[in-house]
Design goal:
- The protein is an alpha/beta fold.
- It folds into two domains: 12-133 and 320-333, Aspartate/ornithine carbamoyltransferase (Rossmann fold), CATH 3.40.50; 137-318, Rossmann fold (3-Layer(aba) Sandwich), CATH 3.40.50.
- Helices cover 46% and strands 12% of the residues.
- It has 13 helices and nine strands.
- It has helices at 17-36, 58-69, 90-100, 111-121, 135-149, 166-178, 199-212, 222-226, 244-254, 261-266, 286-295, 304-307, 314-333, and strands at 47-52, 73-77, 103-107, 125-127, 157-161, 181-185, 216-219, 231-234, 272-275.
- Strands 7-6-5-8-9 form a five-stranded parallel beta sheet. A four-stranded parallel beta sheet has the order 2-1-3-4, sandwiched between helices.
- Helix 4 links the parallel strand 3 (103-107) and strand 4 (125-127).
- Helix 6 (166-178) runs parallel beside helix 7 (199-212).
- The mean pLDDT is 94.
- Bound molecules: phosphoric acid mono(formamide)ester.
- Phosphoric acid mono(formamide)ester (CP) binds at residues 56-59, 129, 137, 276-278.
């Protein structure tokens, strides 16, 4: 049987196909219990630290509610409220937290930081998002796919429309490990403001795909990418807090890759729409309104009609963050 007790969860590259499937099966069990109101306080008396150097809604709430459902206590360290990396080295903070907590979640920037935290703390560390990877997100994405298409997703196809980043990286990794076809569709030129896959990540995914039969590709041709896709996935084109010049060039670069009804119409008949959220589809949000005013556009990475439409599974996907993150904590601490 699979046993990942004591392990950190930093990147899905570190986990085998069976270990990933085990985490997904466990997520299904935990979701069923939660929905049926069956208590599952399996980790009563343990405590976890939730370190966020960037803001979060879903990830933070999933870790907090997940930990509480498992009977654990939580301490949240906000983006500015800890000494880590400023007044104290990562290695020192890691050793302190490791003396007090049974597990540590970390969201931040450089992936090396979460690796260092794991190396020095001596307790399981879970990656809540780094520049390179967003592994808990990918687990929730695939749980949502399973709910729609069944447990065996071999031969299904997911298209990621738009900007490469941590979400696309982890999606490519999990698809390659599970034999799911994956295509990233976006500009492929080496121009300022554009990001394509880092060669080392893409090569690792190709190695995994060779074992599982997954077909991985990148293209700038929307029709070619979306044809036959069972899921069309997207993410925001630019992060909050990034300079206006970047917004301007990124919007111009990414606009051809907006997920519209027409794009969904090119996919398989049963295709679903996925988005890790938050989304800027809604110009009623502060950021959405700024974009609409500043750039004279009313729609960003996805149209309202797709986001709110019958193929959208974005809120199931968001809920699944809870069940999958809970599975990760339980499997590594239980
Ligand atoms: N998808 C995701 O990571 O959401 P948050 O940034 O709200 O945690």
């Amino acid at each position: 049987g699979v046993n990942i007790k004591g392990r950190s969860f930093l990147s899905l590259l570190d986990f085998t196909t069976s270990e990933i499937e085990y985490l997904l099966d466990l997520s299904v069990d935990l979701k069923r219990m939660k929905r049926a109101g069956v208590p599952h306080r399996y980790l009563e008396g343990k405590n976890v630290a939730l370190v966020f150097e960037k803001t979060s809604t879903r990830t933070r709430c999933a870790f907090e509610v997940g930990a509480h459902d498992l009977g654990m206590g939580t301490t949240y360290l906000d983006p500015s409220g800890s000494q880590m990396g400023h007044k104290e080295s990562i290695a020192d903070t890691a050793r302190v937290l490791g003396r007090m907590f049974d597990g540590i979640e970390y969201r931040g920037f450089e992936h090396e930081k979460v690796e260092k935290l794991a190396r020095f703390s001596g307790v399981p560390v879970w990656n809540g998002l780094t520049n390179e990877f967003h592994p808990t997100q990918a687990l929730a994405d695939i749980l949502t796919m399973r709910e729609e298409f069944g447990d065996d997703l071999k031969g299904k196809k997911i298209v990621f429309m738009g900007q490469v980043g941590n979400t696309a990286d982890s999606l490519a990794v999990i698809c390659s490990k599970l034999g799911i076809d994956f295509c990233q569709c976006g500009p492929q030129e080496d121009v300022p403001g554009n990001r394509t896959f880092q060669p080392w990540i893409w090569e690792r995914c190709q190695d995994e795909a060779a074992k599982t039969g997954a077909h991985l590709s990148v293209t700038d041709n929307v029709k070619e990418a979306v044809s036959g896709a069972n899921a069309v996935y997207t993410d925001v084109w630019v992060g909050l807090g990034q300079p206006k010049e970047l917004w301007e060039s990124r919007i111009a670069l990414m606009s051809p890759y907006r997920v519209t009804d027409e794009v969904m119409g090119m996919a398989a008949d049963d295709a679903i729409f996925l988005h890790c959220l938050p989304s800027f589809h809604d110009t009623n949000t502060t950021v959405g309104a700024q974009i609409a005013q500043g750039f004279g556009i009313s729609e960003m990475e996805v149209t309202d009609s797709v986001f709110e439409g019958p193929r959208s599974r974005v809120f199931d996907e968001a809920e699944n963050r809870l069940h999958t993150i809970k599975a990760v904590m339980y499997a590594t601490l239980g």
